[in-house]
Write a structure and sequence with these properties.
With 1408 residues, the protein is mainly β. Helices cover 6% and strands 37% of the residues. The strands form 33 sheets. Strands 58-57-61-62-54-52-63 form a seven-stranded mixed beta sheet, with helices on one face. A six-stranded antiparallel beta sheet has the order 3-12-5-10-9-8, with no helix packed on it. α3 packs antiparallel against α4. The longest helix has 15 residues.
Length: 1408
């Protein structure tokens, strides 16, 4: 590193590496001027080559090109060799034999060699790659030590600036950084640079650009760049997906979408290129999750064998342990290790009185009664036999009895309890057995002489007895088989085998077993069963485990896993394909896209496909009709919340000048977008503190004239020829009753309706002039009513071409068009021509693929489209005027009790108008309408007449009323919406709409579903979407009552009752929930913060022992489970909590600034309607860590200032202690109590004392960090009303820390809470609606009469007042252009005119 100096007058000034005088800039170890050393890393270490005469050369180190400050030391006899490899690949090798300077690889090196030491140095940077080798020079080992600074190969380099964000008026430019290989100067992916922790990606730079004013536009232009303030683009990330696994060693992953968005001056966000966001790091799109291990079975040690000789049993405890070491559920029962196992005690069980063969004396023989299985209670009910009683006879045959009990082992207390015998099943061990204590010897008496001494029955020894006669063949060829001793009945005198019936069966000796072939079996492959197929169709996989095993003992099932190389056969496959069949077509949905706006009512869309998984694993996309079931929804509402208020500007004033440069002003306004998507103006106070947009801007009008010129006045009466409408009269072919040259057109009475067919109908009669969306296979008649024109001369066109007459299509004598069984070929635009007048009818099909390849799109804008419009009246300026009073009619008529929601009807009209204007294809309009009617819920789609305040245009006469009364009514379910409390009654009765809790005491549950309607509706029950089936336990009666006998856990779910008849259907649901008693997940682990700096928070789970220092903050968690959700309460020493212990809403207990007074037992109790559960923790608090019998005083320091021991409350006034510390020293200095409420107390506390015996000074210290809390205003609550000055909202008040983190409100309970008052919101006019009065009494007491009521259109305005408005505001509109004539001629009393001119006739009624 060179230093340049410059002599200046009185002294010498140093020139930095940047060639600036006295800058102080120096090169770092990497050779970068004024660098921070981040472009290289230090490499140091040592190597021991261990060279020999045979292996004489070894490479010990590689130093890459560009390395600096290289230093190598070698101690030993070996010779140092350097191989240099240039960047072009040229190699040269140099052996360093003597001291001197070397030029190797175009780099100068200094080498020194001593008797037993070599040193190599160079400042570098080296110009080639060095490979350092050592060559054998003696038997002694050489140690090589090295040190050098290696350049980081992959480094960040800044890019040029990206293009400007705007072309004029002031914008911004950003640059970025890219990862570069400094050796090849190539750009690489960013992960190469991220692998070096020294690398720090440069922050993008920002600069202004294109500051020139934009060209003039609309009489003025903006020239102030700050008026175009444009926030920087930022990253917007979506929510994390669900974790791919629930547990596992490697864990799973979660993904999310990350896009770059830019906000314009109106607050709207748009997605832009990602380079615009490179000024900030891109958020990660994937993260690991659930990285903890899955629960697994853990087996404890085996118990001792249950017998002292022979064969017995031993047991062990097997638990399911999770990653926290807690005993929980979740392990696979199929893999649970066995809990009992046979055991063999290698001690012979001796029985001296029996005659046994020689082999019986060996220790590995067993007897049957000694191998008797020993029973112990388990977690499952089990019969446990007691010991056998003594034999009932002292000699000869007798009986033995024993007691058998049904017992179960309680897991937590490890105690056994008795159960009724029926709990253990029918496989009960025997209660008694025969026994034989040997031959009875007769005692001589006085009658002995009377008996014959030759009687064989009086002999003291029997003639026949049991004896062992060899063994059976070995049960196995290896791994310790068994041979059983053969017991035969023999004649003792003749030593011959006789029939077994001659011997006493009760004295038959026990079975003896001989171990044979004890050598292990040869290794072989063992396989597990195939797992279930991973897929039911398509292509699945089955797996199994394959092990190379060696059987050591058949009896003990001792199997040893050995290396796979020891198994000679071919290894069986570990996986195989399964279920290789094509799957049925199914719906596949993509993820919902981001909401179009976060508040104010947005829309989310997604793509839905019908796909089929083939047996090859590939997917095939099909038409929608190939999939069963309804198609999932493709759009849904979102962001249905009010947006927060914001400051906006009103309208700009006029420019202050008429020519040249001036200014414009506007007033600030507090605005808000409601959940309905409407902008409302609020009071200014609600936006206090929010940034305001620019209120002043410049404007440039036309250039001011330098010389006055005469202004020629415009001739407003002169109209260009192009703007004149040339009206002509088209002359049709002369026909009867139609005179040529008549100026008045024929009157074509078309009806401008939108017809939508929702149910199948054989034939429909419609009128020309509208749009129809019909179902396939429906027959259609299109009428063409006309006056002043002969019907015989009516002719029709389809898509601009004449219609041919056929069996499928035909024109009636009245001029109507008949189409039989609509198909895709019938889609199009039909035109009825009556001389110079004409009208059109657009036909589309729904419920099928309405795209017909054989015809042009009916709605495609073309030159012929104008010809398809009504031609007699050409003064319409746009298409919308063709449909002045368009409405929606549902087909078939009279089949719908409910009507469409106004918003739905308006949307259907808008879709149709867009198709007419060519903004979308007619096929798209048909698909969209079909999707809306199919996927919207009933509540979103329909409204009952009572809800909409629908007004009939006329009262029904007697015949109409009688037909309505006999037509019937749709079903209505009598419902109740509530959740019943938990009850322990045996029988529970609820009504549909209610939810109920099931307990173990519930024996019968009845859900009543009462429905009204004519004809009587039929009831259908479903559970969780599936139709219920009659079973022994589940049934229902004619009245609609559902009965569930002996409810189980599997019965919980959502039950739905659907009542249906010919006029419609109604449904309601009830939720059945299973009540569970509360439980607390207890941790028995002891927790201590010994050796940890005080000031942090200690957290522990209830159940163990907790030891903390004084002043610590302790949180005790009480994790509970149960249903209904248990309530958690805390107690201290079976009493209430003190003021420092706070119960949190999460169920945890927070103890702030723990003191000695907090020692004791803290208990949490979880309680619900089923029961309660209590768990406890013992809290220990320690102060200055000295032993109890310490006698010498303890001195305390606070921030290196000694605290004086004063009786009572002391206050340190030293300047170094700030405002003073209030404290008390207790118990001879072992406890220091500090006031934490009024003074600052953060800092370092140290206690010092001497050891009693050695007077050696000892000390301990802690650092206490205080955390302060406070109240802060948060977001606004949801407005209580959407309009009409009836809503209010409040500002949320949150308890936060100094850095803004939310904490429970109990942390701020010692601070006065601010008061927030309700503020009016949504002060805007409500939508007009119909208001009706009660019906009057019937005009006649018998026969036919009439009733009337008042109907008015009312609106609740923004002040809260109700006002009456015209009927048109409530949706009543004219359906024809002649309504002004109808009103002038006073024809509104005619029903037909009253219906078609509803708006005009209602105005007339309102005025009168």
């Amino acid at each position: 590193m060179s230093t340049q100096c410059l002599q200046v007058d009185a002294g010498v000034e140093e020139v930095g590496c940047d060639r600036q005088l006295a800058s102080g800039a120096r090169e770092d170890n990497c050779g970068v001027c004024a660098g921070d050393g981040s472009t290289c890393r230090l490499v140091r270490g040592q190597a021991l080559p261990h060279l020999t005469a045979k292996e004489s050369v070894k490479t010990v180190l590689e130093v890459p090109v560009g390395s600096r400050f290289v230093r190598l030391n070698a101690k030993g006899p070996d010779i140092m060799v350097i191989e240099a490899v240039s960047l072009q690949g040229r190699k040269e090798e140099t052996s360093l034999m003597s001291t001197g300077s070397y030029m190797i690889g175009n780099t100068s090196l200094d080498f020194q060699r001593g008797l037993d030491r070599q040193t190599l140095r160079t400042h570098g940077p080296i110009k080639a790659d060095y490979i350092i080798k050592m060559k054998y020079g003696g038997s002694k080992d050489t140690v090589v030590q090295f040190l050098f600074y290696q350049p980081i190969r992959y480094q960040w380099r800044e890019t040029d600036f990206f293009p400007c964000s705007v072309t004029c008026g002031g914008g911004y430019q950003l640059n970025s950084a890219e990862c570069t290989d400094i050796r090849s100067n190539q750009t690489l992916p960013e992960h190469h640079c991220d692998s070096y922790p020294e690398n720090t990606k440069p922050t993008p730079k920002l600069k202004e650009c294109n500051m020139d004013p934009c060209p003039e536009s609309d009489g003025f232009k903006e020239v102030m760049p700050y008026d175009h303030f444009q926030p920087l683009p930022r990253w917007e990330q979506g929510p994390w997906t669900q974790c791919s696994v629930s547990c596992g060693e490697g864990g799973g992953w979660q993904d999310r979408s990350v896009v770059c968005v830019e906000e314009d001056t109106h607050g709207q966000f748009t997605q832009v290129d990602e380079w615009k966001c490179t000024h900030s790091p891109r958020p990660v799109t994937r993260q690991t999750c659930n990285t903890f291990a899955c629960p697994q079975w853990v087996a404890m040690e085996w118990s001792q064998c249950t017998v002292t000789c022979g064969r017995g049993l031993h047991y062990r405890v097997v638990l399911c342990i999770d990653h926290r070491g807690q005993h929980i559920g979740g392990c696979d029962p199929a893999f649970k290790p066995h809990v009992k196992e046979d055991c063999l005690v290698p001690i012979a069980c001796h029985k001296p009185r029996e005659s046994v063969p020689v082999e019986a004396k060996l220790p590995w023989l067993k007897q049957a009664h000694e191998l008797e299985e020993h029973h112990t209670a388990t977690e499952d009910p089990t019969f446990i036999p007691g010991p056998w009683s003594p034999c009932s006879a002292t000699c000869g045959p007798g009986r033995q009895t024993r007691e058998v009990k049904c017992r179960v082992l309680l897991s937590f207390t490890k105690t056994e309890v008795d159960l009724p015998e029926e709990e253990c099943g029918e496989d009960r061990p025997q209660l008694e057995r025969p026994c034989n204590q040997g031959i009875c010897t007769r005692v001589p008496d006085i009658s002995s002489g009377l008996q014959d001494h030759r009687d064989p029955y009086i002999q003291t020894e029997e003639l026949f007895s049991w004896d062992y006669r060899g063994f059976t063949s070995c049960s196995a060829t290896c791994a310790a088989g068994k041979q059983t001793a053969v017991v035969m009945c023999v004649n003792k005198k003749q030593d011959e085998e006789v029939d077994d019936s001659l011997c006493d069966s009760s004295s038959k000796p026990a079975v003896m077993i001989h171990i044979c072939k004890p050598e292990p079996c040869p290794p072989r492959w063992e396989v597990t069963a195939w797992t279930g197929c991973s897929a039911s169709c398509g292509v699945g996989i089955q797996t199994r485990s394959v092990f190379c095993m060696q059987l050591m003992s058949v009896d003990e099932q001792d199997i040893l896993t050995v290396s796979e190389d020891e198994c000679r056969e071919f290894k069986p496959p570990i996986l195989q394909p399964c279920n290789q069949v094509d799957c049925p077509p199914a719906w596949e949905t993509e993820l919902w896209q981001r909401c179009s706006q976060s508040c104010g009512g947005g829309v989310q869309v997604r793509k839905v496909y019908c796909k089929q998984l083939l047996s090859t694993g590939a997917y095939r996309r099909l038409e929608d009709r190939a999939c069963w079931g309804s198609k999932p929804t493709t759009n849904r509402g979102c962001g249905n919340t009010d947006c927060p208020p914001y400051m906006a500007g009103g309208g700009w004033s006029k420019c202050s000048v008429s020519c040249g440069l001036g200014i414009q002003r506007r007033e600030p306004m507090c605005r808000q977008m409601t959940a309905m998507g409407q902008q409302v103006t609020l009071v200014r106070e609600l936006c206090s503190g929010l940034p305001s947009p620019p209120l002043v801007r410049t404007c440039r009008m036309m250039a001011c004239p330098k010389h006055k010129k005469e202004m020629r006045p415009k001739d407003t009466q002169k109209v260009p020829v192009k703007s004149q409408i040339k009206q002509t009269v088209r002359h049709p072919t002369k026909a009867r009753d139609y005179e040529e040259g008549v100026k008045q057109c024929p009157l074509l009475m078309g009806i401008h309706h939108i017809y939508i067919q929702t149910r199948k109908e054989k034939r429909l009669h419609l009128t020309v002039g509208g749009h129809a969306y019909l179902l396939p296979n429906t027959s259609l008649v299109i009428k063409c009513p006309v006056r002043r024109f002969p019907k015989a001369y009516i002719h029709w066109l389809k898509d601009g071409r004449p219609l041919p007459s056929s069996k499928h299509l035909g024109i009636t004598k009245s001029g109507s068009l008949k189409i039989h069984f609509l198909g895709m070929e019938d889609i199009g635009v039909y035109k009825c021509i009556t001389g110079p007048a004409s009208d059109i009818f657009t036909l589309q099909l729904i419920g099928s693929d309405s795209r017909s390849p054989s015809r042009p799109s009916a709605a495609s804008p073309s030159s012929s489209w104008e010809e398809m419009l009504p031609s007699c009246r050409s003064h319409y300026s746009d298409l919308e005027s063709l449909w002045p009073g368009v409405s929606v009619s549902l087909l078939p008529p009279g089949a719908h009790e409910a009507s469409l929601q106004p918003r739905v009807e308006e949307r259907l009209i808008n879709i149709t108008m867009q198709a007419d204007r060519g903004e979308m294809q007619q096929e798209q309009a048909s698909d969209l309408i079909s999707s809306l009617l199919t996927h919207m819920s009933a509540a979103q789609l329909w409204s009952r007449p009572a809800d909409r305040g629908h007004v009939k245009d006329k009262l029904p006469n007697g015949s109409e009323r009688s037909s309505l009364e006999t037509a019937g009514s749709g079903p209505v379910i009598i419902r109740q919406q509530q959740i019943l409390p938990v009850t322990f009654q045996k029988n529970i009765n609820i009504s549909i709409g209610q939810s109920a809790f099931l307990t173990n005491a519930t024996q019968l549950l009845t859900i009543l579903c009462l429905a009204e309607g004519f004809p009587s509706p039929k009831i259908l029950w479903t559970k969780d979407g599936a139709v219920l089936q009659h079973t022994v336990r589940v049934s229902w009666d004619i009245s609609g009552g559902l009965h569930i006998l002996q409810p189980r856990v599997s019965d919980r779910g959502l039950y739905k009752c659907t009542a249906a008849n010919t006029h419609g259907s109604d449904s309601e649901t009830s939720q059945l929930l299973m009540a569970e008693p509360p439980a607390i997940t207890v941790s028995w682990r002891n927790v201590s913060d010994y050796g940890v700096m005080l000031g942090h928070s200690v957290r522990a789970v209830v159940g163990g022992q907790v030891s903390v220092q004084q002043g610590a903050n302790l949180t005790l968690d009480c994790p509970v489970s149960g249903f209904p959700q248990p309530a958690v309460t805390w107690h201290w020493k079976n009493g209430p909590l003190d003021e420092r212990a706070v119960s949190l809403s999460s169920g945890s207990l927070w103890i702030r600034n723990v003191s000695l007074q907090n020692r004791g037992t803290f208990s949490c109790t979880a309680t619900n309607a089923i029961g309660k559960f209590t768990a406890s923790t013992v809290l220990q608090v320690y102060g200055c860590p000295v032993i109890p019998d310490h006698k010498l005083p303890v001195r305390w320091d606070y921030n290196n200032q000694t605290l004086k021991e004063i009786s009572g409350l002391a206050q340190a006034q030293d300047a170094g202690l700030g405002q003073g510390l209030q404290y008390r020293i207790l118990v001879g200095g072992r406890v220091l109590e500090v006031n934490t409420f009024q003074m600052k107390f953060s800092g370092r506390y140290c206690c010092q004392t001497f050891i009693n015996s050695t007077r050696q000074l000892i000390s301990a210290w802690i650092y206490i960090h205080s955390e302060e809390f406070g109240w802060r205003f948060g977001d606004w609550t949801t407005c209580t009303a959407s309009c009409g000055n009836r809503g209010t909202w409040l500002r949320k008040i949150q308890c936060v820390t100094l850095d803004g983190r939310d904490v429970p409100p109990t942390m701020c309970q010692h601070i006065p809470k601010p008061i927030t008052s309700p503020v009016p919101c949504n002060r805007q006019d409500c939508h007009p609606r119909w208001v009706v009065s009660e019906w009057s009494k019937c005009s006649a007491s018998c026969g036919s009469g009439w009733k009337q009521r008042q109907v008015s259109c009312q609106q609740l305005d923004a002040r809260g007042a109700v006002r009456t408005v015209t009927a048109t505001a409530c949706g009543c509109k004219d359906a024809t252009q002649y309504c002004s004539v109808v009103k002038r001629l006073k024809l509104c009393y005619v029903d037909m005119y009253k219906q078609r001119c509803c708006g005009s006739c209602s105005q007339d009624a309102d005025s009168t």
